[in-house]
Amino acid sequence: MSTNPNTDDFFATVATKSDSGALRGDYSQADANYVVAQNWDTFYTPEQHALWRRLYARQAKLIPGRACDVFIDSLKALDVSQGIPRFDRTTEALYKATGWQLVAVPGLVPDHTFFEHLANRRFPVTVWLREEHEFDYIVEPDVFHDFFGHVPLLFNPIFADHLQEYGKGGLKALKLDGLAYLARLYWYTIEFGLIRSEQGLRIYGAGILSSGGEVEYCLSSDQPRRVPFQVERIMRTLYKIDSYQETYFVIDDFEQLFNDTAPDFTPLYERLKQQDALPANTLLAGETNLPPNR
Ligand code: HBI
Ligand code: FE
C-alpha cells in the first residue's frame, strides 16, 4: 500500500482491511490473480436471487432519462432482471462486442491485481451479494454494484478502450507513486462521472448507477457542484466515501475521457506532489458550476 500522505480515505480503509485480513469474501480458493469460480449453480440461494430482483427493479425504474443511453441499452440487452447473472454468459456477449471478459473475484483485490486485470481487458466482478439490511447502502463493492454498475458500459468500445488504458496507467502509477491521483480520476469518472447529452446531464458512473438515492440527487439537487471534466483538477480533489459526492465532474463524451487521459502522467504526478489537495466541495475561481437538470 502507498505511504503517500495524500492517499485518500478509501485506500486507507482498504489498506487497513487488507492488513487486518478483515476483507469480506472468501479468498481461500482464489488463484494468483485473485480469480475464483463463480459457482453460480450452488453459491446463491433463492433468497439472494430475490434480493437481486428487488435491487434491479428499483434501479431500473430510476434510470430512464438519467443514465446515459449506452448504459440503458446495454442493460436491457443483458437481460439480468430475473436474478444474479451468470458471468460466463455475459462474457460471451461482451467478448464479441468489445473483447472484454468478466472474471469472478472474492471482493476487493490488491491494486496491482486490479490494474493487471483491466490492462488485459478483464473486469473483476465480486461474487457475493449484499445482505438485506444493506439494501440502500453498502461500503464495499458487491456483485450488484460491480455487475449492474460497471458491466453495461463495457459494451461501449471507446469506454472499453479507456478502461484498459486506465489499467495500464495504474500499473505505471504504482511505480511513480501516483496511485492516489489516479484513484481520484477513477472515482470521479468511472464511479461518479456525469456526461452531457442533448437532453441534459446523464450518469455513467457505476457508484451512482448502483445507488438508490444518488441517481436522483446527482442530477437534480442544488447542493453539489457540477464541474466540467479536467484531469489535473480531478487529481487534486479529495473525495467522500461515506456520503453523496460534493462535486461531480462532467465529460462531453467518452472520446474526451479517452483522449484527455492518453498523455503520459509522469510530469503531472510530479506537479501534483508539490500541491495541496483540494477539499471535495471546492469550486475554484472562474470555474463553471453547471445547473442541475430541470
Ligand atoms: N478491487 N474488486 C475490486 N474492485 C475495485 O474497484 C478495486 C479493487 N482493487 C483496487 C481498486 N479498485 C483501486 O486500485 C482502484 O479503484 C483505483
Ligand atoms: Fe466500482
UniProtKB/TrEMBL annotation:
InterPro entries: ArAA_hydroxylase, ArAA_hydroxylase_Fe/CU_BS, ArAA_hydroxylase_sf, Aro-AA_hydroxylase_C_sf, Aromatic-AA_hydroxylase_C, Phe-4-hydroxylase_mono. Its cofactor is Fe(2+). Residues 1-294 form the Biopterin-dependent aromatic amino acid hydroxylase family profile domain. Gene3D superfamilies: Aromatic amino acid hydroxylase. It catalyses: (6R)-L-erythro-5,6,7,8-tetrahydrobiopterin + L-phenylalanine + O2 = (4aS,6R)-4a-hydroxy-L-erythro-5,6,7,8-tetrahydrobiopterin + L-tyrosine. Its EC number is 1.14.16.1. Fe cation binds at residues 145, 150, 191. Pathway: Amino-acid degradation; L-phenylalanine degradation; acetoacetate and fumarate from L-phenylalanine: step 1/6. GO terms for biological process: L-phenylalanine catabolic process. It is an enzyme of class 1 (oxidoreductase). GO terms for molecular function: iron ion binding; phenylalanine 4-monooxygenase activity. Keywords: Iron, Metal-binding, Monooxygenase, Oxidoreductase, Phenylalanine catabolism. PANTHER family: AROMATIC AMINO ACID HYDROXYLASE (PTHR11473), PHENYLALANINE-4-HYDROXYLASE (PTHR11473:SF24). Belongs to the biopterin-dependent aromatic amino acid hydroxylase family. This is Phenylalanine-4-hydroxylase. It comes from Herbaspirillum robiniae.
